[in-house]
Amino acid sequence: MLNKNNYTEKDLVQIIKNISVGVSSSSGDVFFEKLILHIYKLYGMSHIIIGTLNKKNNSIVSLKFMLNGELIDNIEYSLEYTPCADVIKYKSSAYKKDVQKLFSQDEFFKINNIQSYIGIRLIDSLSKGVGIIACLDTKELIYTDSMHSILEIFASRASAELDRINIENHLEERIKDRTSKLTKALDKLKQKSHDELIKAEKMAKLGSMVTGFTHDLNTPIGIGVTASSFIQAKCKSIKNDLDSGKLSKSALNSFIDDSYSMAESMFKSLEKAKELVRSFKIISIDQHVAEKKKIFLKSYLNDILISLNYILKHTNISIQNDIPISLEIIASAGIFFQIFSNLIMNSIKHGFDGIHEGKINISASYENKILYIIYKDNGKGMNEETKNKIFEQFYTTKKNDGGTGLGMFIVYELVVQKSHGTIDLISQPDMGVEFKIKLPL
What we know:
Number of strands: 14
Order of helices and strands: HHEEEEHEHHEEHHHEHHEEHEEHHEE
CATH topology of the domain at 293-440: Heat Shock Protein 90
Mean pLDDT: 82
CATH superfamily of the domain at 293-440: Histidine kinase-like ATPase, C-terminal domain
């Protein structure tokens, strides 16, 4: 544990880098747990809470709570007669000692003999107070500007994570609502045109992509926010030293080195975010545009794989893109997202169900205006009944697990019905699958 009186500038830089690597790569419950452990490691204050504001009850609901250095079950406590109410109202609050006397009606302070307190407000994208980070101790607080700056950086990251969670929850509710409506529609409209159902399935898939995209984008943005907050805090410290005539050459050189390191981290993170946005933009727009365009199929498949990363990263499945880099076609791009994504999802949900790891190979060739695609996986394979029914509308072996039975039907519709191509399936139990697609362009 670092002594809060003697950590060096190098220590601070390493701390911020640890936040970027260890905290920004996490999300949700794991994120807040790591955040509390970082605060405890840095300052050693015995009680730490990260919580959200419950306006209806005028209370704080903890996301993570540390009592006497140990993480315990979450709690909810009233803001009345507590310094946390001041934090929500005034952004931050700190009491070096005697906080128990100042808030004599706070039962928690009495029971745990709390003497010092520091709290920072968490805000949403509209700068409204939505929660707090508060640190409490049984001894006097040795409070410094750098301590406040570091805690503000933690609060900034916690605020960004709360925003991400709220956005993701909102999107998930919308997706659940769409999925529920789609399931009800399947029972009612089996005898009617399937075009609208296919459209709804595509929109549900796009909605899932949005959720995954926001989650994947959180990591590079989180690192960028952390790095920029550190640079801002360091600039403030350097300016104070400059104004007071205490700025040394070594301190200035250290500031330049640290700022360069953080700026480099920001640049790499923003480059990753730019690539995610670029891929998402290409894929999402192509779902609504039927116009044909020039496509380098290998590169386009890579964009599809990036858009599916929110699912693939939770599996031990490797995908080998063996399409020649020079293979260029003129076609409506949206069809390839539907074909490849549905084949990949079929492998994940069915081919590798219960299997620890797997491999998918995708290759293609183009000759005489015909595109040949070969898709293979080394999963569980299929029995004769599944092979005979896999392209049927509504056929699924996972109906009780959210399967709609439209994924492979969409592949068949796009290849055979709409493009007048062919799709052949080769498979045996425990021998994986091979789809051979012939697509006139």
